[in-house]
Amino acid sequence: MILLIIIGMSLATMIPRIIPAFIVDKLQFRDWVNRWLNAVPFAALGALIFPGIMAVKPDEPHIGLLGGIVAVGLAYLGLNIILVVIGAIATVFLLST
Q1: Domains of the chain: which residue ranges?
Q2: Does residue 71 contact residue 89 with C-beta atoms inside 8 Å?
Q3: From the centroid of its chain, how far is CA 92?
Q4: Cβ neighbours for 39, distance < 8 A, ≥ 6 positions apart
Q5: How much is the pTM?
Q6: Could you please report the per-residue DSSP string of 59-81?
Q7: pLDDT tens by residue, 11-51
Q8: CA distance 73 to 87
Q9: How far apart are CA 48 and CA 54, in angstroms?
Q10: What are the TM regions of this chain, as residue ranges (predicted)?
Q11: What integer best gives the mean pLDDT of the chain?
Q12: Is there a contact between 67 and 88 (Cβ–Cβ < 8 Å)?
């Protein structure tokens, strides 16, 4: 009985994940939909990162904002992601001391 429940639950979670993988390749979206879908990962990343930036020092949120601005600037220059992270950490560290 437990085995049937496990199989049923695995199918219930697996089917909604597999079906879009087969359907999306066959669909043709309009250009504006493709542009909107291409922006979703960046919006999600921003939504995940911004609260962390504001919580670096809750009593001094400008320090986290400056670290985030430095990270954006370094990324805009095309630096390696490791250098972007180190630059943001160094900025927050220097402003915190």
Answers
A1: 1-38, 55-97
A2: no
A3: 21
A4: none
A5: 0.59
A6: T-HHHHHHHHHHHHHHHHTT--H
A7: 999 998 888 888 877 888 889 988 888 888 888 888 888 99
A8: 10
A9: 11
A10: 36-56, 63-95
A11: 90
A12: yes
